[in-house]
Amino acid sequence: MLAATTGVTVSTSGCVNRLRDLVTRNNIKQLSLTITTLPADSDRESIRIANELERIFKTVGIDVSFDVRSGIDFLQTVLYDHDFDVCIGRHPGGTDPDFLYQALHSLYADESGWQNPFGFTNLTVDAFLEKQRTAEGADRREAVTDALETIATVQPFVPICIPEEHRMVRSDRFDGWDEGHLATRRGYLGLEPAESVETLRAINTDARPTDNLNPLAISHRGRGTFTELLYDSLATDDPDGDVQPWLAESWEWDGRTADVHLRDWCEFHDGETISATDVEFTYQFLKDMSLGNHEVETPAPRYRGQVEAIETVEVRGPTRLEITVDTSPEVGERAFLVPILPAHVWQERAADPNGPVGVSLAQGTTKAVVTNNVPPIGSGPYQFASRTEGDQLTFERYDSHFTRRAGVDLPEPTVDELTVQITPSSKTAIRAVENDVADVTSTSLESNVIDTIHDSSDSQLLESPSWTFYFLGFNARKAPFSNPRFRRVLARLIDKEWLVEKVFYGNARPVATPVTEQWVPKSLEWQGDDPETPFLGTDGEVNVSAARAAFEAAGFRYDEQERLRVRQ
Q1: Where among 434, 464, 494 does a domain terminate?
Q2: What CA–CA distance (Å, rounded) separates 533 from 524?
Q3: Which InterPro entries match (predicted)?
């Protein structure tokens, strides 16, 4: 019996030791992360930020690799597939803080698109974002402040800076460049051309609009500038960011219901009349691109947060409808900014696509997502004329557009034609304007070329406010990025002030919160450092001892080779 017992003890002790190793050591690996970002020819600033963060992360014992992808592939990977650890890019942001509802609410954590690409879930943040949607005046500002302060604490992503936007324009061919933002329709309307000028010539460093003109295709859409020229919306942002009537002639709020009157005798570019039914269809379609054909709703990957504000749409006549929102009117009016789609074109796109599609949404895919939408049929001030993939786009003025009517006090298309030429870089775009080949660099210029431009009698550098921001995003669907303590320490490894000087040559503003200045609470104002997650170092050099202490305080450990460890 003793011999037998000894044999059992010997035979099992090796298993116990192996189990102990498995639990305590062999599955504890060096923390490794992959930075997904864009190449220099797509976004110079993103890859340079990534290079600096790689250096710092490695200094504190993290193994780092890169996944550098083209503009389309980057958005596909991050927004559609959610296949990343951390990502660095430029977020579209918004002029109103309600954009954070779409960006962070846990309701959207499993969808594809700009709605919560981080997979972030936090009930406290949800509650504050919901509250600011229904509150008004001082109560809304208080709710926004609560949301921003909580977001800064848990760091679902790290806002790095808001870049300045610079574009070069021909002042000898057009006046009025400063009347509207060149990332919106207003920047291209109402311009005063010189005598005999009949074409507005834009030069663009992003070729994606020549391949695809689908307003719902997030992998091909940036700021949506050309969408706004091709499609009308009920409302438009004025230069101060306020919502004003556009396709809608007027609306009146009765509590949370708006009595909306469309302008009479408006048509789509194919001659079909725009009616209240098209507006009703648009909001139904953006909420569910399958129009009830799928077991669950298939919301569009763009405009999700905006249309979510709409509770009901009731057609009251050919050009009249009542729109009820479950938010405050201030937030509800943001839903009036989505493009109005012609029902007779998009109705059949509610069906499932046939064959390989290359796009798979978590919420379901329909023809509406996979179509390139060429030619686009909208009702905007310009209509599609022609394109050469990768090279150029041509739009023609839509002479029947309501902005050209007498008595309508809105900026109108003042030239017969708008051409968009594609060029590979900001430097070549600048040369095109200098050499009188183009009138405007429609994409904002890279920060490293700004100081090389000098105003002349023929051209000038135009600066516009920005609501986009550069960010480090975490995939909270996986450990350790799901851990807010870990995210906070990584946030403290980013010297935002130094990056603004090093990467952006001072042509950006470091931020602790990603909203426009009028919404930044005093507690999150920039005072030379991030007030919530200050940098653990000086002048871009991290204090390794302080960083190690911060990781250890967050529950992480280092090995004898000073490598940060994590359980796999």
Answers
A1: 464
A2: 10
A3: SBP_5 (IPR039424), SBP_5_dom (IPR000914)
- SS3 of the chain: helix, strand, coil, percent, to 5: 35, 20, 45
CB 77 within 8 A of CB 88: no
In terms of domains, do 251 and 358 share one?
Answer: yes
Partners of 42 in the beta sheet?
A: none
Within a domain: 65: yes
pLDDT of residue 567: 64
Rounded distance between C-alpha atoms, residue 111 and residue 308, angstroms: 14
Residues 271, 310, single domain; the answer is yes
Residue 474: name the closest of 72, 158, 160 by CA: 158
> For residue 290, how far is the Cα from the chain centroid?
24
Nearest Cα residue to 417 out of 100, 197, 143: 197
Q: pLDDT at position 24, please?
A: 44
Listed in sequence order, the residues at least 6 apart from 433 whose beta carbon sits closer than 8 Å to its beta carbon are 168, 169, 170, 203, 439, 440, 441, 459
Same domain, 460 and 473: no
CB 370 within 8 A of CB 358: yes
Residue 153 CA to residue 33 CA, distance in Å, equals 22
Q: Is 100 helix (H, G, I), strand (E, B) or coil?
A: helix
The structure tokens 């002029």 sit at 95
Q: Could you check whether the bond before residue 480 is cis, i.e. omega within 30 degrees of 0?
A: yes
CA-to-CA separations, 542 to 158, 226, 455, 470, in angstroms, rounded: 17, 43, 40, 21
Cβ pair 472, 157 in contact under 8 A: yes
How far is the C-alpha of 184 from the C-alpha of 237, rounded, in Å?
8
The CA angle 195-201-202, to the nearest 5 degrees, is 145
- The angle formed by the CA atoms of residues 383, 386 and 387, to the nearest 5 degrees, is 120
Q: How far is CA 553 from the centre of its chain?
A: 34
> Are the CB atoms for 475 and 84 separated by under 8 Å?
yes
- Token pair of 342 as six digits: 């012609």
Other CB atoms closer than 10 Å to residue 434's CB: what's the count? 16
Tell me, rounded to whole angstroms, the distance of Cα 318 from its chain centroid: 35
- Which amino acid is located at 301 in the chain? P
Classify 101 in phi/psi space as left (phi over 0), alpha (psi -120 to 50) or beta: alpha
Task: Quote the pLDDT of residue 295.
Answer: 84
* Residues facing residue 30 across a β-bridge: 565
Q: How far apart are the first and last CA of the chain?
A: 42
pLDDT in tens, 205-227: 999 999 999 999 888 887 789 99
pLDDT at 10: 38
- Identify the three-state secondary structure at position 368: helix
The residue type of 359 is: V
Beta strands in 111-256 (DSSP E): 157-163, 165-170, 174-175, 192-193, 199-204, 235-237, 243-245, 248-254
The answer on 272 and 367 residing in a single domain is yes
CA dihedral sign, ordered 420, 421, 425, 427: negative
- The pTM of the full predicted model, rounded to 2 decimals, is 0.91
Q: Which helix (H) or strand (E) holds 345?
A: helix 343-346
